[in-house]
Amino acid sequence: MKVVLQNLTKTFPARGKKGETVTAVNDFTFEIPDGELIGLLGPSGCGKSTTLNLICGLQKPTGGKIFFGEDDVTDLPPEHRGVGLVFQNYALYPHLTVLQNILFPLENLKGKNKLSKDEMKRRAHEAAALVQIEGLMERRPSELSGGQQQRVAIARALVKMPRVLLLDEPLSNLDARLRLQTREEIRRIQKETGITTVFVTHDQEEAMSISDRIVVMKDGVIQQIDKPQTVYDDPTNLFVAKFLGTPPISVFSGEVRGGMLYIGENPVLPVGGVSDRPVTVGIRPEGFVPDEKGKLICDLKAVEVMGRDISIVSTHAAAQVPVIRSIVSADHRINTASPTVAFSLKPHKVFLFDRESEGRIPFTTV
Ligand code: ATP
Asked: Which residue among 9, 22, 53, 167 has the greatest number of ligand 1 atoms within 8 angstroms of its CB, and so is best to mutate?
């Protein structure tokens, strides 16, 4: 089932004398193709949960429309939209067993949707098998680990065979190892069922690893929608470039003169097709190449061995970040006794941005 958001807007009214109206979702237009998993990604308060609440019908938009397939569902109440919801806090009923928790949404079906007891049980066991908790059906939530509870919550969302699955930070309460395992599982289940899914997270690594496409948001405005790798390789503006990537991108003040990018006084990279102007420069950690003849000369602070790679920590007067982190193969020998380290740059890992608008400035490499 494809989901279409058309000029979707949600404005909350001002509260109190000094309150201001908040536009949590500002003119969203995008289509989620049938069977895709879309990651909604952005910092706290950017409007991710509000978007999800609009899609499931818990909140009404101020403007715009929502379609499931060809159906306009904008005014349809949540219970008639056929959505499955999973939240950060699993919200299981503590006094019910796992089986009873999963059965709960089916027992509430009315009229022509009502199911026989046998059919309900069959569906509950099918959903439990999908998330691999069949052995836990008689336990109560307090007798389960966090990861198991979250799987029960997912089974409960799947049991109604939703047209659309909405997951709001579903992994936040899990420890690092379980997060990884559960996110792989969510991806597997999503692929197996083919349910169109929206996954909300503020964790860029999580969004990148699980999504077919990601929507990067800031202050209620979509910044970029694309495949995760494309957003990483080709960010539309400085915000997106900074939001994606670990370690984060290093940012410098620079200047283009005569087709050459200068950081400080040094010419560091030829950049074709850019007029002379001050720029903001972003360099991905893997864009730095230790090179004695390199023109970007940084003050060496530390070399951290990470096994396959090493992380070089340095500083530079033109850097807008406290430290520059570059990741290079452990084959490189870095002279840790030297006060400086020189780098040449991989052109496709360097991005230029307008100083004012922070929009991307394209350049050609020679
Ligand atoms: P988080 O990651 O912290 O959950 P989010 O990206 O999900 O954040 P939202 O919860 O969608 O963000 O909130 C977006 C903006 O709308 C915020 O500025 C928030 O304060 C505001 N907002 C959300 N709900 C309401 C409400 N009921 N009334 C007024 N403002 C609200």
From this structure: 22
The H-assigned helical ranges of the chain are 48-56, 98-107, 117-130, 146-158, 176-193, 204-210, 228-233, 238-243
User: How many Å lie between the centroid of ligand 1 and the Cα of residue 206?
Assistant: 21
Sequence-distant (≥ 6) Cβ neighbours of residue 359 within 8 angstroms? 236, 237, 353
The confidence score (pLDDT) of residue 77 equals 92
pTM of the shown model: 0.90
CB within 8 Å of 113: residues ≥ 6 apart: none
Which tokens belong to 122?
């069959």
- What pLDDT, in 10s, does the model give residues 124-139? 998 898 888 889 999 9
3-241 fold: Rossmann fold (3.40.50)
201 pocket-lining for ligand 1 (C-beta < 6 Å): no
The Cα–Cα gap between 284 and 292 comes to 20
Tokens of 213: 């496409």
Look at the block and give the residue holding tokens 């690092």: 176
Domain ranges of the chain: 3-241, 247-361
Q: Return the sign of the alpha-carbon dihedral for residues 136, 137, 138, 144.
A: positive
Which residues make beta-bridge pairs with 255? 262, 278
Ligand 1 atom closest to Cα of 51?
A: 11
